[in-house]
Specification:
With about 525 residues, this protein is an alpha/beta fold. The strands form six sheets. A six-stranded mixed beta sheet has the order 17-19-18-21-16-20. A five-stranded parallel beta sheet has the order 3-2-1-5-6. Strand 7 and strand 8 form a beta hairpin. The N and C termini lie far apart (about 50 Å).
Length: about 525
C-alpha cells in the first residue's frame, strides 16, 4: 500500500475495485465501514453485490476482465470535464499525452458496452473520485489475477496520477495483500528477479554487494516463477522442487496439470505444518512450526514490519523454518551459521536500504513501516510525498484486452474464484476447525436467480460444473447478488475444488494466474 490502514478512516472517497474487504480482509473492511459512516464517498466496482456494494454511492457490476476499459473511461470523463490535476501532471509525471491518445477512445458509452454497465454510473464515479480532496484506490486479487494483471494495476495508477492522489495522506493506490506476510516474503527476495528489498539480480552492483556478504557468486540470470516451474517439470527442465508453506495441489490453477507436474519431478521436498494434498506427492516432508511456535517478523499490507514472538513450545518432532533451512544448506555444502532469527534480520537489514533503520528493539511495540533508511527514521506512513522512486510518475496506457479464453455455446458462463469470510486460503488450518466448518465447510458455486431458473436448478442442489480442463460436483447457491452470466466459487475446498476448472493463462509480466476468468457450463446431475 502506498498509504496506511489507519488513513482509510479519514479519506474523502474510497474506490474499491477487485476486492471484497469485509470477507477477505474483515479488519480492514471494518475501517472502511467506519470511513463510510464518517461521510466518505464510496465507489465499488465488482461483478457481485458484495457487502461494501450495499452501502456504496455507486456500484458498477462490471463484466469480469473489463477493468482497463472501466478505468480508461473514468479517465476520459475526468479529462473531458477538466477534473484532472494540471499542476501535478506537469510537475510530477511524464507521457500524459500518450495516455490521452488511448483514453480519448474510451467514452463512457463504449466502456459501458464492454463492461455491461450504465454509462451514467461511469460518469458519476469519475466525478466522485476526481473531486474528492483525498481519494484512495483499494484493490486486491480481483485486479491482479487476470491475464492483464499488470496492465490493470497500471490503469488504476494512471487515475491516481491524473488526479494528484499520490504522495498525500488518506489517498494513494493501495493493494490489499492476499495472504499473511506475502508482503514480507516479497520484501525478503522470494521473487526470481529480486534479492531482498527488490534489488534486481540483473544489476552487477547488487550482485557484487550480496556476493561479498554471503561469500558466493550470485547468478545473474532471472529464475522461474512458481507458475513457470510446474510446466518446466513436465518438460523435464526442472528435476527437483522444494515447496515451503504452499499447497500447489489445491491452490494452483488447472489441478490436473499440477498433479502431472508434481509426479514428473525426480525429487520433491515439502516443508509445512500438515500433511497437505501437495505433501502427499513428496519424497520428503519436513515438519515445520506455526507462527505461535517461533520468533521472527511479519510484514503486513501497509509495509509494517512487526515482531512475532514464540508463545508456545514447538510440537515434538518439528523445527522452526530458519533452522531447517540452515541445516539443509549446511548439508549441501554452504555453511550458514545463524543462531537466531534476530541475527538473520540484522544481516538482511544491513543489505537492504528500505529496511536499514530497522532492528528488533526498534520494532518492539508497533513495528515500523518501510522505507526506514536509518536508525533515526520513524518509518514511512505514506509514500511518494516529494518524489517517486523513479523520479517522476509514468503514465502507462493500455487498451482493453481479449479474455484469456472464449466463452461459447459449449462453455457459456464465466467463473470467477475468491474467498468467503470463514475459511482462509486453501483451508490448511481453518479447514481443520470444526466451528468454522459448521459455518462454511463445503464447496459451492453461486449463480443468479435468473440463471438457476433457466437451468432448472434449485438452491442447495448438487450440480456438475465443467470447464475445458476438468469437472467437479458442488452445491448450487442461488442468489440475487451476482450477474446473470457470472458464477462464483470459493477456492478453499478439497472436495469440489474450484481450481480443477481454472485456466493456466497468466499475466505475461508477473506470471500471476488468471483465476478470475474461466469459461464453464453448469449441468443438473442426472439431468
Amino acid at each position: 500500500m502506498t498509504n496506511s490502514i489507519k488513513e482509510i478512516e479519514f479519506t474523502d472517497c474510497m474506490f474499491i475495485i477487485g476486492s471484497n474487504p469485509t470477507e477477505a480482509h474483515p479488519v480492514l473492511g471494518t475501517i472502511m465501514k467506519r470511513a463510510r459512516r464518517r461521510g466518505a464517498k464510496l465507489i465499488v466496482a465488482d461483478p457481485r453485490r458484495i457487502e461494501m456494494a450495499e452501502m456504496a454511492d455507486i456500484h458498477m457490476a462490471l463484466k469480469p476482465g473489463t477493468n482497463i476499459a472501466l478505468a480508461n473511461a473514468i479517465a476520459h470523463v475526468i479529462y473531458e470535464e477538466k477534473l484532472y490535476d494540471k499542476d501535478f501532471i506537469e510537475n510530477r509525471t511524464e507521457d500524459f499525452d500518450d495516455y490521452l491518445d488511448i483514453i480519448k477512445e474510451y467514452t463512457p458509452e463504449r466502456a459501458a458496452e464492454i463492461c455491461e454497465i450504465d454509462p451514467e454510473d461511469i460518469r458519476a464515479a469519475a466525478r466522485l473520485y476526481a473531486t474528492a480532496d483525498k481519494a484512495g484506490i483499494y484493490y486486491c486479487l480481483g485486479i491482479t489475477e487476470h491475464n492483464t494483471g499488470t496492465q490493470n494495476v497500471m490503469a488504476l495508477s494512471n487515475l491516481a496520477l491524473m488526479t494528484g492522489n499520490l504522495g498525500k495522506e488518506s489517498a494513494g493506490v493501495n493493494p490489499i495483500r492476499g495472504q499473511n506476510n506475502v508482503q514480507g516474503a516479497c520484501d525478503m527476495g522470494a521473487l526470481p528477479s529480486d534479492l531482498p528489498g527488490y534489488q534486481k539480480v540483473i544489476k552487477p552492483e547488487v550482485r557484487e554487494k550480496f556476493s561479498q556478504a554471503w561469500g558466493v557468486e550470485i547468478p545473474a540470470e532471472v529464475g522461474l516463477t512458481a507458475t513457470e516451474m510446474l510446466p518446466a517439470a513436465i518438460e523435464g527442465q526442472l528435476k527437483a522442487l522444494y515447496i515451503f508453506g504452499e499447497d500447489q495441489a489445491l491452490a494452483d490453477p488447472d489441478l490436473g496439470h499440477v498433479r502431472k507436474s508434481l509426479t514428473s519431478l525426480d525429487f520433491l521436498v515439502v516443508q509445512d505444518l500438515f500433511m497437505t494434498p501437495t505433501a502427499e506427492f513428496a519424497d520428503v516432508v519436513l515438519p515445520a512450526t506455526s507462527y505461535a511456535e517461533k520468533d521472527g517478523t511479519f510484514t503486513n499490507t501497509e509495509r509494517r514490519v512487526q515482531r512475532v514472538r514464540k508463545a508456545i513450545q514447538p510440537v515434538k518432532g518439528t523445527r522452526v523454518d530458519w533452522d531447517i533451512i540452515t541445516d539443509v544448506s549446511r548439508r549441501m555444502g554452504y555453511p550458514m551459521r545463524y543462531r537466531s532469527s534476530e541475527q538473520i534480520f540484522d544481516e538482511m537489514a544491513s543489505l537492504t536500504p528500505s529496511y536499514k533503520g530497522m532492528s528488533y528493539p526498534r520494532m518492539e511495540d508497533l513495528g515500523l513501516q518501510w522505507p526506514c533508511p536509518d536508525a533515526e527514521h520513524p518509518g514511512t506512513r505514506y509514500m511518494h510525498k516529494d518524489a517517486f522512486a523513479r523520479g517522476i510518475g509514468l503514465f502507462m496506457p493500455s487498451d482493453h484486452p481479449e479474455p484469456p479464453e472464449e466463452v461459447n455455446e459449449e462453455y457459456p458462463l464465466i467463473l470467477s474464484t475468491g474467498r468467503n469470510l470463514y475459511q482462509y486460503n486453501v483451508a490448511t488450518m481453518t479447514g481443520r476447525t470444526d466451528g468454522i466448518n459448521q459455518k462454511e465447510g463445503r464447496s459451492y458455486i453461486e449463480l443468479s436467480v435468473e440463471l438457476a431458473a433457466q437451468l432448472g436448478i434449485e438452491n442447495e442442489e448438487m450440480v456438475e460444473v465443467t470447464s475445458r480442463r476438468g469437472r467437479i460436483k458442488t452445491q448450487a447457491r442461488v442468489t440475487d447478488a451476482i450477474r446473470d452470466n457470472l458464477c462464483f466459487m470459493p477456492f478453499h475446498y478439497i472436495d469440489g475444488a474450484a481450481n480443477e476448472l481454472t485456466t493456466t493463462a497468466s499475466c505475461p509480466i508477473t506470471k500471476t494466474p488468471a483465476y478470475k476468468f474461466a469459461a464453464i457450463r453448469i449441468d443438473k446431475i442426472g439431468g
